[in-house]
Fold this sequence. Notes:
Elements: H1 4-13, E1 22-27, H2 29-36, H3 47-54, E2 58-65, E3 68-74, E4 79-85, E5 90-95, H4 104-108, E6 110-116, E7 121-126, E8 132-136, H5 143-147, H6 157-165, H7 175-179, H8 190-200, H9 213-232, E9 270-274, E10 277-281
Antiparallel strand pairs: 1-6, 2-3, 3-4, 4-8, 5-7, 6-7, 9-10
Amino acid sequence: xxxxxxxxxxxxxxxxxxxxxxxxxxxxxxxxxxxxxxxxxxxxxxxxxxxxxxxxxxxxxxxxxxxxxxxxxxxxxxxxxxxxxxxxxxxxxxxxxxxxxxxxxxxxxxxxxxxxxxxxxxxxxxxxxxxxxxxxxxxxxxxxxxxxxxxxxxxxxxxxxxxxxxxxxxxxxxxxxxxxxxxxxxxxxxxxxxxxxxxxxxxxxxxxxxxxxxxxxxxxxxxxxxxxxxxxxxxxxxxxxxxxxxxxxxxxxxxxxxxxxxxxxxxxxxxxxxxxxxxxxxxxxxx
Length: 287
């Protein structure tokens, strides 16, 4: 699943569509079939209402909160927010022609096509179809945003993180589970959680209450360090993540422990399922 760096990179690469008008919206048969069986595949709104609301609007701004993208859309009468989550395998492409999407699977599994007034298309593809789109009059109407912690770049983020890590609801949780909670710090998924914990020398299984303030502070610093490194290397491509231009990231070449057999010092790694995800760690380097 794309984590904060990958979603931030997508947001940055989508800037060419800002100030363009959406002239038409086309939805895949997968989406229509899902709605017929009440699954609400990808688009969570009523489909005709979604198309009517979005078509004719200008893309005024594109932002990110945690692992979510949001588009501010508007015309002379109203504004609305289109919130999008990439799920496990979602990807956006800006193309002049549908055939410009080079990879067969992304071409085959297109889900939403936004036609733009400059003749280009903004296409959302999703192979596994776990992504989501929905509209909101205000971002405050979307509960995950209301609960979400400040972004790691916000000056209030560290204080918020430390306060939450000392809250009763987290004291008996494994530290890995705590840092993957967007109410503590947004955007940390499985990959960057295990990488940050390794760099902090903290076992992912250790309960939060048994970790000193100094070590928790260091963990925050390592999370931000890993985020910045990933941004500089184009994100991580394990299987399905692609940039808007179809490129793959290179962060996976810098992993210390994720999907590795040994740590950088040659110690064998252990794995344990935490929060339903395989967790990689070194019992020699981490404590």
